[in-house]
Amino acid sequence: MKQVISLLLVSPFLIYFAFQPLFNHVVHLQNSVLEIVMDQGIEKAAVDGRFTSETIQQMKKTVAEVLHYSESEVVFEGTQTLTPRGEYIWGRISIPPGQMSVMPRLFGSRPVTLSAGAKQMSEYIPR
């Protein structure tokens, strides 16, 4: 009987330490995807002088396809006005939080919105 009680007391910790690294890895991969998409988007936006609607749509579509979100859940904010060469443009893309912990109620995990941002000098020369 003592062994059963001991197992019941220790089992939440065993489950946590066995599966939490997988959740951490998934969150890391999601954040990596956001950073890569943001880097590609800021490069295109620097040449165009702003984030065009096509660039934003392509970024949202890529994130939605790779991470299995709907495009409406992917949020973008950034420079959408034409910016001449020498001034900075910036952007941030974010997704809603998923489950980040094996046992969120037991270990008190707060949802965090995953996002990636970038800032780069514009290369657009007005003609």
TrEMBL record:
Name of this chain's protein: Uncharacterized protein
UniProt source species: Thermincola ferriacetica
